Automatic annotation (TrEMBL):
It comes from candidate division WOR-1 bacterium RIFCSPHIGHO2_01_FULL_53_15. CDD domains: DHDPR_N. Its main location: cytoplasm. One of its GO terms (molecular function) is 4-hydroxy-tetrahydrodipicolinate reductase. The keyword Nucleotide-binding does not apply. Keywords: Amino-acid biosynthesis, Cytoplasm, Diaminopimelate biosynthesis, Lysine biosynthesis, NAD, NADP, Oxidoreductase. It is found in: Cytoplasm. PANTHER family: 4-HYDROXY-TETRAHYDRODIPICOLINATE REDUCTASE 1, CHLOROPLASTIC-RELATED, DIHYDRODIPICOLINATE REDUCTASE. The active site is at 133 (proton donor/acceptor), 137 (proton donor). Residues 2-106 form the Dihydrodipicolinate reductase N-terminal domain. NAD(+) binds at residues 8-13, 77-79, 103-106. The gene is dapB. This is 4-hydroxy-tetrahydrodipicolinate reductase. Its EC number is 1.17.1.8. GO terms for biological process: diaminopimelate biosynthetic process; lysine biosynthetic process via diaminopimelate.
């Protein structure tokens, strides 16, 4: 049994993760933490091996420091992590001999969309990204859009849409002589992220150091 804490358990993604972990016979949900809780103490009290974090960009780095310094592995779905943050996380993993997977998007279809876009840009370099999310999403552009742009070479315009009724959607539109190509992924519910989250929880102990992107474990 893998002992798991869900941090940000009162949020929409956190609540979905709690339900997903509870369904798996090889995972044990030993804690649900949120704002105001002592995450380090919870890890120690419950001997948690893995912490899944779905919180917010303002607190994600302090949460990651707490998780890794407490000796647990991290599965991080919170966005807003910078290149400098990744350098610090890599050092924390080495120092504490733990692993941390950072994934801008846990939907397997979204990972495939990014890989297809990375392949397509070599042949159709004129492209733009349009990402659509629910109106309460804090960061803009999304972590998925930023990750896609980086995979495509970095200089891809990104357009962000925030509206009620949306969950998480992204399309990459390529233009060429007399033709266009659109690669699109739609998450119609937060359940779409759970197979990727569970996969990461199961595999994180066997990885090494910092892993950036779900594609590394597919």
């Amino acid at each position: 049994m893998i002992k798991v804490i869900v941090n940000g358990a009162k949020g929409k993604m956190g609540m979905e993760t709690v339900k997903a972990v509870q369904k798996e016979s090889d995972l044990a949900l030993v804690g649900q933490t949120d704002m105001g809780d002592d995450l380090v103490q919870a890890i120690k009290d419950k001997s948690a091996e893995v912490v899944v974090d779905f919180t917010n960009p303002q607190s994600v780095m302090s949460n990651i420091r707490a998780i890794l310094n407490a000796g647990a592995h991290g599965v991080i779905g919170t966005t807003g992590i910078t290149e400098n943050d990744l350098h610090e996380i890599r050092e924390l993993c080495e120092k504490n001999r733990v692993n941390c997977l950072i994934a801008p998007n846990f939907a397997i279809g979204a990972v495939l969309m990014m890989q297809f876009a990375q392949a397509a840009v070599k042949h159709m370099p004129s492209a733009e990204i349009i990402e659509f999310h629910h109106e309460t999403k804090v960061d803009k552009p999304s972590g998925t859009a930023l990750r896609t742009a980086r995979l495509m070479g970095g200089k891809v315009p990104i357009h962000s849409v925030r509206l009620p009724g949306l969950v998480a959607h992204q399309e990459v539109v390529f233009g060429g002589l007399g033709q266009t190509l659109t690669i699109r992924h739609d998450s119609l519910s937060r359940e779409s992220f759970m197979p990727g989250v569970i996969l990461a929880v199961r595999k994180i102990k066997g990885l090494k150091g910092l892993i950036h992107g779900l594609e590394a474990i597919l």
